[in-house]
Design goal:
Blueprint: E1 3-9, E2 28-29, E3 48-57, E4 63-74, E5 81-84, E6 87-92, E7 95-101, E8 104-108, E9 113-124, E10 130-139, E11 144-154, E12 158-168, E13 173-184, E14 193-204, E15 209-212, E16 216-222, E17 225-232, E18 234-238, E19 243-254, E20 259-269, E21 274-277, E22 281-285, E23 290-294, E24 296-300, E25 305-316, E26 321-331, E27 336-347, E28 351-362, E29 367-371, E30 376-380
């Protein structure tokens, strides 16, 4: 027998008032009859009551939910209560965690499931989130609130849209699934902000962290213009520190510079405009046709400075110029390269082969000076 109960009724019952209005009982309704008191009668099939408040306690007597309705109608088998204009509270450990309103609702499975439909607004009392959608399911015993159909969500940290949202309040976690687009909250006219796209995201609001085990795309906007795009097979975004960690087939486009980067891992400190890559990486400057590879590197996006180390190879694809070194500082703005340690520079026309400890110059116009240590110059005539 279900154990949700009526708290109060205002107005008139439309059918079967003779069942007794001191409680809503039968399969699904009413408090348990006491051992000394008389057994409560079941409501007649199709009974409709106006201005009703229903609630459901757990076995310890703590409320799981409380819902008011303009009208409540009971199914013929008395297993379902249909609610018009539900307005209620969802509880956890005796405290209200969500306030909800909708067009219609249903109470099912002995009060263990509440379904809401149409123009749903669920407001998180403690976490500050507001979820909107057209279908909601609340299972208090499983601590899960599910929202579907045209989901939008707002929070001081994040705004998001998705096909489905699952909220696990005890774990301070929200899972978004299906065409997820989330944006960090900022004054878009004055502050940079991030846009995240994935098929699945897990948001831990207490830790201010977003995880994605699926391909993730992160875009940075400044004054509503996109400046940087990075994608990876999985990733984490720390909203508090503005740190983006991406792993697996990582690719980054720096549109303002412009420059493209590819690697297997990337750590992007967004606010400081610093990118750290501790895996082999490839950088391409599409305008000047410069291609650089190294085993690790760091990029200062604000200063347009790139620092590379270990097995550095820089190639000017337009003129077949090639420079190898242990370390390389690349000023992308001026296209100046400063190479150090075991430098070798080659070009095809005219054929030049230079070795030294240090080199400074540009590959795009073949103006390179190699100096330091023992310099060997080899010129091969045409």
């Amino acid at each position: 027998m279900a154990r949700w109960r009526r708290l109060m009724i205002g107005g008139a019952a439309i059918a079967a008032l003779a069942v007794g209005l001191y409680s809503l009982i039968g399969p699904g309704f009413g408090p348990k009859p006491s051992a000394e008191g008389p057994a409560a009668e079941d409501p007649a099939p199709g009974l409709t009551l106006r201005d009703v408040t229903l609630e459901q306690p757990d076995e310890q007597g703590q409320l799981l939910w409380r819902v008011k309705g303009k009208e409540v109608t009971y199914s013929p088998d008395q297993q379902v209560a249909f609610i018009t204009r539900p307005d209620g509270d969802l509880f956890q450990d005796g405290d209200v965690i969500y306030q909800v309103v909708a067009d219609t609702g249903e109470v099912r499975e002995n009060g263990s499931v509440i379904l809401l439909r149409g123009n749903i607004v669920a407001t998180g009392v403690k976490n500050g989130s507001v979820l909107r959608g057209n279908e909601m399911e609340w299972r208090p015993q499983d601590d899960v609130l599910v929202m579907r159909d045209q989901i939008t969500g707002t929070h001081p940290q994040l705004r998001a849209v998705a096909d489905e949202a699952r909220v696990f309040n005890r774990e301070n976690r929200m899972e978004l699934a299906g065409n997820v687009v989330a944006s960090t909250v900022a004054d878009s006219k004055t502050e940079p902000w991030l846009k995240l796209q994935a098929q699945e995201l897990a948001w831990f609001w207490e830790e201010e962290r977003i995880d994605s085990a699926q391909p993730l795309r992160v875009e940075q906007f400044k004054q509503n213009a996109i400046t940087d795009v990075v994608v990876g097979q999985r990733g984490t975004v720390n909203l508090a520190t503005q740190l983006v960690n991406l792993r697996g087939q990582v690719a980054m486009q720096m549109l303002d510079i412009p420059l493209n980067m590819a690697s297997e891992a990337l750590d992007w400190q967004v606010a400081e405009e610093q990118v750290t890559v501790n895996q082999p990486l490839t950088l391409i400057h599409p305008e000047n046709k410069i291609r650089v590879t190294a085993r690790q590197g760091r990029m200062d996006l604000a200063a347009q400075q790139i620092f590379l180390s270990q097995d550095v190879v820089a190639v000017g694809e337009a003129n077949q110029a090639r420079m190898t070194s242990d370390r390389l500082n690349w000023n992308v703005d001026t296209q100046t390269l400063v190479a150090e340690g075991g430098v070798n520079y080659r070009q095809a026309n005219p054929n030049v082969n230079l070795n030294g400890a240090r080199a400074v110059g540009r590959l795009d116009n073949q103006t390179v000076v190699v100096d330091g240590g023992r310099v060997v110059t080899e010129i091969v005539p045409n």
